[in-house]
Design a protein that fits this description.
The model has no long low-confidence stretch (mean pLDDT 87). The protein has 122 residues and is mainly alpha-helical. It contains six helices and no strands. It is globular and about 45 Å long. Helix content is 43%, strand content 0%.
Length: 122
Amino acid sequence: MRRHFRDPHALSVDLRQLTAHDQVVRDTVMGTAGVREVLAATALQVQGYLAGPTAAPLTVVTQCAGGRHRAATTAMALRAVIAGDVEEAAAYGLANAAQQFADRSLVVHLVHRDLDKDVVDR
């Protein structure tokens, strides 16, 4: 996310102290052109791995500069999609992507590495 999608607080200084827990941050990230397409494509990639011959656990990582806006929001959206939670995924504009996982009963663990850390000074 870091190099391809602008940091939301670079667009609005009011977002700097907020995180993906705040609706305005989630709306800003998900409203960024291309983000939904990248997440839908990532969900397709997960399906490909799950269809493979190995049943090993799969780890998906999202990253950005501070971990409080883009990475956290997209991780939350992907969790909803891959868990097949169509209602929650719809809040991110990804209901169709989640529908493909709805009957799979996958267990998805979401770990935020930086969400609760202090704002990165840049």
